[in-house]
Amino acid sequence: SSELTQPPSVSVSPGQTARISCSGETLSKQYVYWYQQRPGQAPILVIYKDSERPSGIPERFSGSSSGTTVTLSISGVQADDEADYYCQSADISGIYWVFGGGTKLTVL
Amino acid sequence: EVQLVESGGDLVKPGGSLRLSCTASGFPFSNAWMSWVRQPPGKGLEWLGRIKGKTDGETIDYSAPVKGRFTISRDDSRNTLYLQMTGLKTEDTAVYYCTTSFYDVLAGVRVYFDVWGTGTTVNVSS
């Protein structure tokens, strides 16, 4: 299966570390990309190829991978980090993209 | 400035057709791999398909839910990507985004770009 599973919601207090997981059978073989999406806006890439950070994304955002689970970590969470986060990868062939269901990050 | 701008979204009746456009600027369009992604109201992101760039043969792949109903094409002379949608259903109601990613070299540094348009809204309703 090429499905990606994310928790529907994660809540953290400001200054804490938020960790959002994404699991799927193909993740040990395919890269994962993480997107942040605020209401009414287009997605913004925050991590690519499992752990690389695009230019302009704060160092507070990091990605890690372990077998078939990848994790997006956001340290020193700020109110502005409140958004939906999606993981994205590919099926085993690498041809077809698949998105996780998304995780709503709430900053308490 | 690297930019993608979608257009063509509209209200259309079930069974109808619609063509979306995505105009690119600020990067070499002809070799870019371009994808369409949609997002139904209140729901997550769904990949629809991709067309590869000229040097990769402009191969096209579609997701299962839209294969046979949607057609992706490109006009490199106009820097424009298209999504032709036919047999539209109410469940096709969504914001439709075009997106691409590529590496470029800026000031001697290899930089990864991931670009999304602002989206265009398709509403399929009677």
Provide a descriptive summary of the structure in words.
- Chain A is 0% helix and 44% strand.
- With 108 residues, chain A is mostly beta strands.
- In chain A, strands 1, 3, 4, 7, 8 and 9 form a six-stranded mixed β-sheet that branches. In chain A, strands 2-6-5 form a three-stranded antiparallel β-sheet, with no helix packed on it.
- In chain A, β7 (83-90) and β8 (97-99) form a beta hairpin.
- Chain B is elongated, with a radius of gyration of 15 Å.
- The model of chain B has no long low-confidence stretch (mean pLDDT 96).
- With 126 residues, chain B is mainly beta.
- In chain B, a hairpin with an 8-residue loop joins β5 and β6.
- In chain B, the strands form two sheets. In chain B, strands 2, 4, 5, 6, 9, 10 and 11 form a seven-stranded mixed β-sheet that branches.
- Chain B contains no helices and eleven strands.
- Chain B has strands at 3-7, 11-12, 18-25, 34-39, 46-51, 60-62, 70-75, 80-85, 94-106, 109-116, 120-124.
- Chains A and B meet through β3 and β8 of A and β5 and β10 of B.
Order of helices and strands of chain A: EEEEEEEEE
| Ends distance of chain B | 40 Å
Query: How would a textbook summarize the main sheet of chain B?
Result: 7 strands, mixed
- The whole-number mean of residue pLDDT values of chain A reads 96
Q: Identify the biggest protein-protein contact and residues per side.
A: A-B, 22 and 19 residues
Low-confidence stretches of chain B: none
**Number of contiguous helices of chain B:** 0
